[in-house]
Amino acid sequence: MSEENQNLPEDLGDNQQDTITRVGGMYKDWFLDYASYVILERAVPAIEDGFKPVQRRIMHSMKDLDDGRYNKVANIVGHTMQYHPHGDASIADAMVQIGQKDLLIDTQGNWGNILTGDGAAASRYIEARLSKFALEVIFSPKITDWQLSYDGRKREPINLPVKFPLLLAQGAEGIAVGLSTKLLPHNFNELLDASIKHLKGKRFTILPDFPTGGIMDAGNYNDGNRGGKVRVRARISQLDKNTLVINEIPFGTNTSSLIDSILKANDKGKIKIKKIEDNTAADVEILVHLPAGISPDKTIDALYAFTACESSISPLACVIEDNKPLFIGVSEILRRSTDNTVELLRQELEIELSELEEQWHFSSLERIFIENRIYREIEEEETWEGVINAIDNGLKPFIGHLKRAVTEDDIVRLTEIRIKRISKFDIDKAQQKIDALEGEIARVKDHLAHLIEFAINYFTQLKKNYGQGRERKTEIRVFDDIEASKVVIRNTKLYVNREEGFVGTSLKRDEYVCDCSDIDDIIVFTRQGKMMITKVDTKTFVGKDIIHVAVFKKKDKRTIYNLIYRDGKAGATYVKRFFVSSTTRDREYDLTNGVAGSVVQYFTANPNGEAEIVTILLRQKGSIKKLKWDMDFADILIKGRNSKGNIVTKYPIKRIELKEKGVSTLKPRKIWFDETVRRLNVDGRGELLGAFKGDDRLLIVHSNGSVKTILPELTTHFDDHMVVLEKWNPKKPISAIYWDGEKERYYVKRFLIENENKEETFITDHPKSQLEIVSTDWRPVADIEFAKPRGKEAKPNLEVNLEEFIAIKGIKALGNQLTTEKIKIVNLLASLPYEEEEPLPAEEMDVVDEEDITDDHPDENDGQISMELD
């Protein structure tokens, strides 16, 4: 017994303990009951029909009220309250969500906008009715199981007989007690195709498709199971050099929240924008205006990295089956839905067959009854039993072909036939009706015998009748990973106090180093041969006598450090070249041999692996004959930062002077284009574009007839209208055949790029002008297929050597007319041979992990230290 019960009477203490136990047990039961109720009755959809209870009751109420006309939503909500024991607000919200998915409800009025996040008008102002699709696939009262409503006054369906994978088409989201579900919406037509494949025994894959469009990377979708992830991005394109346009947004966002996230990122200095315009109406159009000098490509990546333009969605497929939660993949949901549809179709066919056979049975009885005038045999009967027996006896000679026995109910129905109908009875029409029924019976039996083929045809018809306009909206693509440190705007300045050994953004009275961001790392070297990498902060101590500080880039193998150091106070002098690609943050590294008193005598940081020539001057000591000589860093191999280096001299050095600036010793960099993510890379993915030196450029031609050259930056975005991407050779002409919309003729032209820093159009600016073919080969050949004149034979094809057809002219020249004949099609053939001048043989090129690093603040002595030595 607890201490507080020790002073109570013994029986009272026991009673209190029993009361506490009983109350605890009640709370435990109540919580479990409440959790079960929320899971089953409110939050999680059933696998049988894909509906939550409130959604199912809304659809049932709309069917009750359905007369083909629109009903006020307020009226539907009120009617639904007969079945749903909750407030009208929850019903109205659920109905608006269904209506916005544009599948089951035909809406009228302001139902809100999923793109902008605007809510629907009040339920008294908007109207709705069931869509034709809903009427066809959701309702079938004869095969529906019913139960009493919560107050016992009405009947409601336990599950609706949905003959379509509705749960996957609409998606579902709900949070219960200790449980949640998040099923993403899928494409209408793709679900039908997958159901057909399943029925045919083929494998299928289904991926989400969002009503907001956008771009999706579903490589880790995991079939919608727990642990999966889908990355979604807005569709961003470059309108001009200072404007970006967002035309589609990620699922789960709207234009308001998206714009808010962009403004917050701008306020935090992650991106830099001038202003935003929201022109969204029926379609999304958000214009992002950039300040002069800001890279559009880099800003696009920054929008994905720091704003809601990219988001990650974690699906969790949980449904209710047999009143229990079930975690299941979307593929299995589709299989079960498809199999359930087959079973529902079978039940409908069996009911239809039973009804048809019943109609045939009574039509046959009716014909026998009237044709053989059996009705006359009841004229003398005085009792009801006598009437029944008379008809029964009269039928017996004629019913051998019937498919079941004649019952008393059948005879009763015969007695209800009116005299007028008997008098106008047409035997031929009666037989035609029976024959038609037999044909219908045969048809239904055939469907039952070939049920899978019938179900496949059913899904095919659904796609034909309702699939138009429901094409995929979300593009499936593999995303490249965006490193935030590469695309963040340098929103602050970095300073250094070399003597005291402090770096930071608050040392505004000290030496300015460069612009940086608050997520950058910085690398620092000291005169004692120490190196450290630390995060940007207001003020950080890194070690006295700083000789170099800069923003650090991970995996950077192109920045080469040239170092000469003395080993100890009186030791030999060593030289080394190294790169730093990765280290542990805030750990001090020793670049010397670790002997006390070691000191750096010369240091440079070279962004592109430059190797300078220096002059070594020794102190006069003893009988040293050679006191001065030159040393070329290009002769020193690049090794790791832990290497000891090569001996320069064992004698004391007076000073080291820079004699000649160096050139890059790094080999040209191989660059590939990955078509899947439409980005450049140096990792060997995709098509090799070539080996690029510092001033080499890429040639880009678009289908609209524009051409430009750019530096091969790994952050560049490439749109879907690009038709040529290759390493640019300034001496190689570009050949093109285009249709001139004004003159309505085909023209040929060959030209060279005149301005490498400007995008230009090489076809005429008429709205109907269009590029037919373009080639960057030296000697291209085109095949011209002429149209066939009416009543005449077509002119034979013509091969045109474009090199001979027209000389190289300016990019704005009209060109030469190809032919006066009417052309059907123009094709490129294999080019004629051409021997290009061979460049000097290049060594095998390095593949590096980072783009070339450029110095935003070039200076003659930047990254270099030369000091007089004691």
Describe the structure.
- This protein has 870 residues and is an alpha+beta fold.
- The protein has 6 domains: 3-37; 44-162, Topoisomerase II, domain 5 (Alpha-Beta Complex); 229-313, 2-Layer Sandwich (Gyrase A, domain 2); 333-466, Orthogonal Bundle (Topoisomerase, domain 3), CATH 1.10.268; 490-665 and 854-866, no CATH class; 669-829, no CATH class.
- It is built from 17 helices and 49 strands.
- Strands 25, 26, 28, 31, 32 and 49 form a 6-stranded mixed beta sheet that branches. Strands 40, 41, 43, 46 and 47 form a 5-stranded mixed beta sheet that branches.
- Helix 2 (53-65) packs across helix 3 (73-80).
- The N and C termini lie far apart (85 Å).
List keywords for this structure.
alpha+beta; Topoisomerase II, domain 5; Gyrase A, domain 2; 6 domains; 17 helices; 26% helix; disordered C terminus
Give a concise summary.
This protein is an alpha+beta fold and 870 residues long. Helices cover 26% and strands 27% of the residues.
**How many individual β-strands?**
49
Q: What can be said about the biggest beta sheet? A: 6 strands, mixed
Q: Spans of 5+ residues with little confidence (pLDDT < 50)?
A: 1-6, 839-870
Q: What is the residue-averaged pLDDT?
A: 87
User: What's the N-to-C terminus distance?
Assistant: 85 Å
What proportion of the residues form beta strands (DSSP E)? 25-35%
Furnish the topology, listing elements before pairings:
Blueprint: H1 10-43, H2 53-65, E1 71-72, H3 73-80, H4 88-100, E2 105-108, E3 127-130, H5 132-137, E4 146-148, E5 155-157, H6 166-170, E6 172-175, E7 180-183, H7 188-199, E8 215-220, E9 229-233, E10 235-240, E11 243-248, H8 255-267, E12 275-278, E13 286-289, H9 296-306, E14 310-313, E15 318-321, E16 324-327, H10 330-371, H11 384-395, H12 408-415, H13 419-423, H14 427-449, H15 451-466, E17 475-476, H16 484-487, E18 492-497, E19 502-504, E20 511-516, E21 521-526, E22 530-535, E23 540-541, E24 546-552, E25 560-566, E26 573-578, E27 588-590, E28 599-606, E29 610-618, E30 628-632, E31 638-639, E32 646-649, E33 653-664, E34 669-674, E35 679-681, E36 687-692, E37 698-702, E38 706-710, E39 722-727, E40 734-740, E41 745-751, E42 760-761, E43 770-775, E44 781-786, E45 798-801, H17 802-805, E46 808-809, E47 816-817, E48 823-829, E49 864-866
Parallel strand pairs: 8-17, 26-31, 41-46
Antiparallel strand pairs: 1-3, 2-3, 4-5, 6-7, 8-9, 9-14, 10-11, 11-13, 12-13, 15-16, 18-19, 18-20, 19-23, 21-22, 21-24, 22-27, 25-26, 25-28, 26-32, 28-49, 29-30, 29-33, 34-35, 34-36, 37-38, 37-39, 38-42, 40-41, 40-43, 41-47, 44-45, 44-48
